[in-house]
Amino acid sequence: MGKLSRDKRDVFYRRAKEKGYRARSAFKLLQLDSEFGLFENVTRAVDLCAAPGSWSQVLTDKLMGKQQQNEQEKLNTSLKEGGDLEDAKQGGTISERHPTIVAVDLQPMAPIDGVLCIQGDITSYETAQAILEPFENNERAQLVVCDGAPDVTGLHDLDEYLQSQLLIAAIKITTHVLVDGGTFVAKIFRGRHAGQLYAQLKMLFERVSIAKPTSSRNSSLESFVVCQNFRGGEKFRNLPLDGDTVLESDNIAPHIPPFFACGDLSGWGEESGIVMDADKSYPMDEKDFVAPVAPPIYQPHLAQEYQEKLKTKDTTQKQ
Ligand SMILES: C[S@@+](CC[C@H](N)C(=O)[O-])C[C@H]1O[C@@H](n2cnc3c(N)ncnc32)[C@H](O)[C@@H]1O
């Protein structure tokens, strides 16, 4: 997070460090939540393209607290009804029995308590299978989020195409893990071909909206598509994972989703009503240095040194 001095003067970058989030993106999810109430009644979630993990951190904060509360309530009800404490606890808590939050990324991710981290490419069949595994004999997730972005080339058409391929993979996986009525949120580059994706998403979900949180820079092509009330059922559950479109049909009605500009920083220490500008550089005081939240686990400039260490270790072991 934040290699450039521009990033360091960015207010969301600084707030993220202060709050212990691994990336400034955390605020995008928080701002989307304040507009759409994403975490209401959610106890199981999937975070696609999750590294370095700030969305998973937000999910953990929001869902773990809620799940523990639900379990405590269940325990209290069972005890009130004359149940035995050990019987009530039998089988462990839900979080002990199966993971509540599954996070996936191409890059390795430093562990987060309560999150099952999978390393893999979401456009590959093997990774998709690995994501489905924890849900096979369990209840489906109520929320799937995807903040996936390919390495941006600066060629808008190419970037939009690569992003849409990632989004299509995410949608297909979502149809396997999302409960009917569930919510899907994903990053989208609003380019020339986004209309086709909106139309397909509108077939799968009752409500499709586009949102741009204030923490997302105006200079960035990105917005977020918020899809609510998954229609599911036989028709839309478990779509084939291969192929490069979501639904094979010529009969898909166009859809122009409503647009929402959302979020300010009130509630994060700013005076209510003040909207901080993600594109503006704010003066910073060097003495306010905050150490990195999650130092990189793999540092390319140290790759050679790392390989040599491995080789030395290998030869010592052989001797
Ligand atoms: C903007 S970052 C996500 C930030 C994350 N939401 C957070 O809050 O920390 C985009 C991520 O997408 C991942 N990504 C890109 N293509 C991918 C793919 N095909 N499969 C899995 N992850 C991918 C990248 O490795 C990168 O970590």
How are the strands ordered across the major sheet? 3-2-1-4-5-7-6-8
Number of alpha- plus pi-helical segments: 11
Evaluate the radius of gyration: 21 Å
CATH first level: which class?
Alpha Beta
Helical fraction equals: 25-40%
Number of strands: 8
- The CATH architecture assignment turns out to be 3-Layer(aba) Sandwich
Q: How large a portion of the residues is in β-strands, by DSSP E?
A: 15-25%
The average pLDDT value, as a whole number, equals 81
Ligand names: S-adenosylmethionine
Describe what you observe in this structure.
The protein has 319 residues and is α/β, with parallel strands linked by helices. It has one domain: Rossmann fold, CATH 3.40.50.150. It is 38% helix and 17% strand. The protein is built from eleven helices and eight strands. An eight-stranded mixed β-sheet has the order 3-2-1-4-5-7-6-8, sandwiched between helices. Strand 4 (141-146), helix 8 and strand 5 form a beta-alpha-beta unit. The longest helix has 27 residues, at 54-80. The protein starts with a helix and ends with a helix. Mean pLDDT is 81; it is low at 88-99. The site of S-adenosylmethionine (SAM) has 22 residues, from helix 4.
